[in-house]
DNA sequence: GTCTATACACGGATAGAC
DNA sequence: GTCTATCCGTGTATAGAC
């Protein structure tokens, strides 16, 4: 990877700049979607001239795809192994907590993903129909086992997954609405804990998880 | 209102044209948000030259505000009277079903609303902090009564409202993802009924509604 | 590597012919 | 009322000075 040149000096070299640009872009794409975002807005937020953004990223589309990919990798890094042997209560609790944590940790990435889906998922169609669908199917199988074993009520596992996704995502994606209604600017750690506890309690009880 | 001219001929006159434009615009704004939407795309979808859109609507912003207003009015026309006397089970069931129905009936309007919130609600801040917040507070009071009377578990009513909003909205806003995962193109009437039944069951049971 | 200047298409909006 | 032509700003992307 081109060790040729001086990547010393400055505040960390190329990688630091790329990181700055990616974060700025994530924020702008999150609010305005792919078409609504402008390179000028991204450059301004990154504190760079517009041309530098293109120099480092190649094009608007490549930049956008990099961000989608980064978000998918964050996602995959966390949402893993559920096995048939696992305790449903523990697994589902963990699922809810992890999803909530991801939203809090990467609010812009989560919103970016939401905007992409809202637009009809033009860049993510393959991911949704392939990787994600398979992920869901494997979890569905596990939950079906749980149901057969009487460990939870007979509910459609796909709907349960959608319920967990939507109810946790809401506090990121609809943050503006949540803040307006709760009358505050952003949720505290305590608020997040309260919401998480509420969701765990209601969803587990609602599905009759023992 | 200018009864002067011939608004005969053609397919219904001015109102019909306005309706066509509004629906086309709703679709484009829903997918791409305020900035990402172009008048050209709206005009194309409506089957009109770009200038006509502006002739009827005045400006992009006015058009957008008309759409937000139309969606708020649809909303208000339906989500009304819950009283302390009402049966919680019936009221919450009705709430879930109505919200689900609104999403199915006005998918573009619902997505448009979602995109506006995602963008930070620049045009809806007043509505959220005023009208909507008051609406929520009044329902919260009712639910607190129910809790005091032992009609349901002691859960935070605000979180319950968010849960109903998010879980129903998901099937509209994340329609692309839901379709990809369920492996079909759009949900059937039966699917919607199934989802609604699932949500009613899980949420009511989860909150211990008697 | 970084920035200014610029090419060229598309954005919203308006003028004016019909 | 309807459409074409056009204004002018902004959009992405590139050329080329430093």
From TrEMBL, chains A, B:
- By its UniProt entry, which PROSITE patterns does this protein fall under? HTH_TETR_2 (PS50977)
State the DNA-binding region(s). Answer: 38-57
> Which Gene3D superfamilies does the UniProt entry name for this protein?
Homeodomain-like, Tetracycline Repressor, domain 2
One Pfam family here: TetR_C_3
Start and end residues of each HTH tetR-type domain: 15-75
UniProt cross-references to SUPFAM superfamilies, sorted A to Z: Homeodomain-like, Tetracyclin repressor-like, C-terminal domain
Q: Which UniProt keywords apply?
A: DNA-binding
The record's listing under PANTHER family reads:
HTH-TYPE TRANSCRIPTIONAL REPRESSOR SCO4008, TRANSCRIPTIONAL REPRESSOR
Kindly provide the name given to this protein in its UniProt entry.
Answer: TetR family transcriptional regulator C-terminal domain-containing protein
Per the UniProt record, the source organism is: Vreelandella malpeensis
